[in-house]
Specification:
The structure is a homodimer.
Chain A (H helix, E strand, L loop, with lengths): L10 E12 L2 E8 L9 E2 L2 E3 L6 H12 L6 E8 L10 E9 L2 H10 L5 E8 L2 E5 L3 E3 L9 H15 L18 H12 L5 H13 L4 E7 L9 E5 L2
Parallel strand pairs in A: 1-6
Antiparallel strand pairs in A: 1-2, 1-4, 2-3, 2-7, 5-6, 7-8, 8-9, 10-11
Chain A binds a DNA duplex through helix 5.
Chain lengths: 236, 236
DNA sequence: AATAATTATTGTTAATTTGACAATAATTAT
DNA sequence: ATAATTATTGTCAAATTAACAATAATTATT
């Protein structure tokens, strides 16, 4: 057992699963652990819950400390409490799901390159895996603690919620100017399946435009081949 | 600050929201707190998480210790971590949702009458309230700690899941012999709205009978006026 | 015994939603 | 100019939903 933790009490950690959509795939932010336990393994960012902070604010400040990002969508994911999930002693983890547009995350990663790496989540025949510079199985030994289980839980949560909530919108680079194609690529990345363009447009507009949560802007998309797309604005 | 808790650490509690459906209404199991803090208030059953148990098994053994009920459906609800949720010090609560058929709960309550009371959840113009011998508002001072918030979270969880999962079946007196009307009354109690008999039957059978999760039994309902109902069996 | 009342079950029909595709429009690349 | 590309609109049958109506099997009442 590790020396830095008192052994006769339960320690509470807050871990973040920071998710983005890059290149048509979900991606999770991980950092390589420099020391034992699990030295060299990839881990979700986290730290012990301060005595005078709620998990909610602790997650918020941990996020701010890691990335200069404000107002990212965040929700409590699950609390992991297996007795032997941490070899140092009894540590439970309150995991939070954080959604960040790739374009905002991208800039941050180059600055702390050494500690951060970003991997793509694939849905490889029900066996989710992380690939990047290396390939890492979610239930393999290269992920620290039970972080593979946390990630799987987060993926399921996102997949379950994207069709009937607005979580997908939080991956948009700008909620003030996005194309329906951009939103569709987010849905496809999260669900891991292609969707019909026409039907997707219809269901999104039926759900959000008629209720006033989405409206067309004057602008159209500049770059790219083909007919330029109308840009929309999302109003929560 | 209370003396029984060390002040320089975070304590972890496991609380149970034991829900049933009685008389067409949801009901939550509460016990009156005998001592401070919140003496005399109604509270969800709970205790501190033992060092050597996961929250999952702690919830299970706490349940068994309170009620002689085996195999009740249970899921982690949410972890409540507000800094000042407990006046004794820093206590976070991992709340679990437990679903029990009223007929099984009924017998247990008489035996520990002093400590347990069962209240009905009403949906009174968006202001949920508990009524029974007394009337208690969910956000009033008669509920201990943040237990009103926990209950509200549990109600929302149930309402959100009942239409697309099988949680409703766990309120059935017997999953081996139930009528569709009995199941419908559970749905109506959880959702707080009446449903069309014919359409309810159709949607349930379409979802569960065609997939083999529900099948007709040879039996029919004995008691009651009117045409006796066919009894079904639920196979998870 | 006959009739009413009650509850379960089945049936009907229009409206809406969904799924799969085709057609058209506006742009860039050749 | 023409092809290729992408966005947008349109179509149409199938499936689902919502709101009711009708029938069936039982108990309660006269």
């Amino acid at each position: 057992m590790h020396k830095t933790l008192a052994s006769a009490q339960i320690h509470v950690a807050v871990d973040l699963m920071i998710v983005t959509v890059r290149d048509g795939k979900m991606a999770v932010l991980l950092s390589r652990r420099p020391q034992a336990p699990c030295a060299g393994c990839w881990a979700l960012p986290g730290h012990l819950l301060p005595l005078e902070e709620s998990a909610e604010t602790a997650a918020e400040s941990l996020l701010r400390e890691m990335l200069p990002i404000d107002g990212a969508y965040r929700e409590q994911l699950f609390t992991f409490t297996d007795v032997s999930r941490d070899p140092r002693g009894r540590v439970i983890s309150i995991a939070y799901l954080v959604l960040v547009p790739w374009q905002r995350l991208e800039g941050c990663l180059t600055r702390e390159e050494v500690k951060l790496a970003c991997f793509t989540v694939c849905d490889d025949a029900k066996q989710s895996a992380l690939v990047g510079p290396e390939t890492i199985l979610l239930d393999g030994p290269q992920l620290a603690f039970d972080h593979g289980q946390i990630i799987r839980t987060g993926i399921r949560r996102l997949q379950g919620k994207i069709s009937y909530t607005d979580v997908g919108f939080h991956f948009l680079q700008s909620t003030d100017a996005f194309s329906l194609r951009e939103l569709q690529m987010i849905f496809e990345a999260v669900l891991g399946e292609e969707m019909d363009k026409s039907n997707f447009r219809r269901s999104i507009l039926a759900r959000y435009e008629t209720t006033g949560h989405i409206s067309q802007t004057e602008d159209i998309q500049k770059s790219g081949r083909g007919r330029p797309a109308v840009l929309y604005r999302y109003i929560p």
